[in-house]
């Protein structure tokens, strides 16, 4: 049974309720940096710790003999990421940091995306009991990557890393010169245009990097909610039974398909991270 039926909510109220974050205070403006989405921070931090622990465990238990299934899976993942890093970032020194970073990004985002595979009302239903008992609002979202603040935070972190490597590889003076001389040439009358184009490029890459992940995961979350509504509308009638059967079939099919989506989105974010860092090593 979905929460929509259990709480007597309409379909619209059910979706709106499930799209509300557990926050430290009520948001009073469109942009308010004093408001934190506590649920996103909690699940993102927890999954980051779990992901790092899994990678540490695989490394600590690695043997030179025939690997077990877990070790083999991690070795395949590490080899895949390392090969991608070698093809994009040509500095072996930089890859010592960039390759593990890309691996961590892939595992972390995959795990955050995978929270979408949990039943829509499972953790919110638990919080529905625990939250009010703790004096907290009855809101809970469990997919951190369906929160724009999380995905934009990740993309901003990638931007900072790119700026770091721009300065490290080219030097501060060389990078500043590149800001004003590329892409149209080192002519003083082109400096304003070149600088504007460089800033637009940095902003566009950062925004699209975060928005792409957010948009896909937000849409997937909405579809799971719509499928949950089908199950909440079941009844002992031909239509109600049909909705219940459709709920099971649609939920299973979408969950299986969503495994591909969550993996692909983690891979795309990782690859774009490598591409942007690789571009920071290239001189115009």
Features of this protein?
mainly alpha; disordered N terminus
Low-confidence spans: pLDDT under 50, at least 5 residues? 1-6
Shape: globular
Main sheet overview: none
- Helicity level, as a percent range? over 70%
The number of domains is 1
Count of helix runs: 9
Instruction: Please state the CA-atom Rg, rounded to the nearest Å.
Output: 23 Å
Strand content: under 5%
Through-space gap between termini: 59 Å
List SSEs in N-to-C order: HHHHHHHHH
Give the beta-strand count.
0
Class derived from helix and strand content: mainly alpha
Mean pLDDT: 89
What does this structure look like?
There is one protein chain. The protein has nine helices and no strands. The chain is mostly helical and 284 residues long. The longest helix is centred in the last third of the chain and has 44 residues, at 238-281. It is globular. It starts with a helix and ends with a helix.
Outline:
The chain is an all-alpha fold.
Write the layout of secondary structure elements.
Blueprint: H1 3-6, H2 11-18, H3 38-60, H4 69-88, H5 92-114, H6 122-133, H7 148-181, H8 191-232, H9 238-281
């Amino acid at each position: 049974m979905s929460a929509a039926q259990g709480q007597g909510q309409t379909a619209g109220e059910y979706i709106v309720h499930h799209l509300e974050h557990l926050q430290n205070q009520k948001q009073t403006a469109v942009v308010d940096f004093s408001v934190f989405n506590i649920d996103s921070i909690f699940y993102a931090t927890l999954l980051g710790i779990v992901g790092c622990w899994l990678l540490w465990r695989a490394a600590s238990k690695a043997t030179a003999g025939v690997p077990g299934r877990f070790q083999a899976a991690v070795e395949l993942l590490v080899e895949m990421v390392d090969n991608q890093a070698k093809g994009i970032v040509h500095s072996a020194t930089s890859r010592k940091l960039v390759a593990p970073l890309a691996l961590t990004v892939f595992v972390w985002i995959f795990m955050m995306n995978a929270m979408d595979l949990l039943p829509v009302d499972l953790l919110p239903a638990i919080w529905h009991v625990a939250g009010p008992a703790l004096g907290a609002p009855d809101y809970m979202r469990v997919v951190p990557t369906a929160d724009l603040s999380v995905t934009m935070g990740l993309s901003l972190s990638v931007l900072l890393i790119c700026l770091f490597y721009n300065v490290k590889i080219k030097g501060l003076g060389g990078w500043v010169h590149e800001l004003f001389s590329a892409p149209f040439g080192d002519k003083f009358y082109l400096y304003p245009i070149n600088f504007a184009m460089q800033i637009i490029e940095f902003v566009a890459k950062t925004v699209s990097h975060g928005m792409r992940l957010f948009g896909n995961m937000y849409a997937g979350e909405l579809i799971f909610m719509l499928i949950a509504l089908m199950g909440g509308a079941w009844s002992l009638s031909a239509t109600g039974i049909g909705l219940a059967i459709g709920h099971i079939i649609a939920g299973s099919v979408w969950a299986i398909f969503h495994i591909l989506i969550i993996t692909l989105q983690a891979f795309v974010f990782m690859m774009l991270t490598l591409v942007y860092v690789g571009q920071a090593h290239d001189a115009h």
